[in-house]
Specification:
Blueprint (H helix, E strand, L loop, with lengths): L2 H11 E10 L2 E8 L4 E7 L2 E8 L2 H9 L12
Antiparallel strand pairs: 1-2, 2-3, 3-4
Length: 77
C-alpha cells in the first residue's frame, strides 16, 4: 500500500502510535492497533507491506529479529 493508504489504515485501525525499526537490513513500521496488538509492516521503496500482527512489542521484535534478506538470488521450487 502507498503512504496515503497506509495512513488511512492507521486512522481506521490504529491508535496513531507507530515506531520505525530497522533489523537485518529490513525496514519495519510497528503500529499499535486499537486492541493493543502490534501490526508489522515492511517498508520497501515507498510501499508498506503488511506482514503479521503480534500480541505485544516483545513478540513483534522477536519476529523481526529472525528475518533477513538473502544475499544471493534464488529460485522457488
Amino acid at each position: 500500500m502507498n503512504r496515503d493508504q497506509f495512513q488511512k489504515w492507521i486512522d481506521e485501525h490504529g491508535t496513531g502510535q507507530r515506531e520505525n525499526k530497522s533489523c537485518n537490513g529490513i525496514d519495519w513500521v510497528l503500529v499499535t492497533m486499537k486492541d493493543t496488538w502490534i501490526a508489522l509492516f515492511e517498508y520497501v521503496n515507498g510501499s508498506y507491506i503488511p506482514y503479521i500482527q503480534c500480541k505485544d512489542k516483545e513478540h513483534a521484535l522477536s519476529y523481526i529479529n529472525v528475518l533477513e534478506r538473502l544475499p544471493v538470488p534464488f529460485d522457488v521450487i
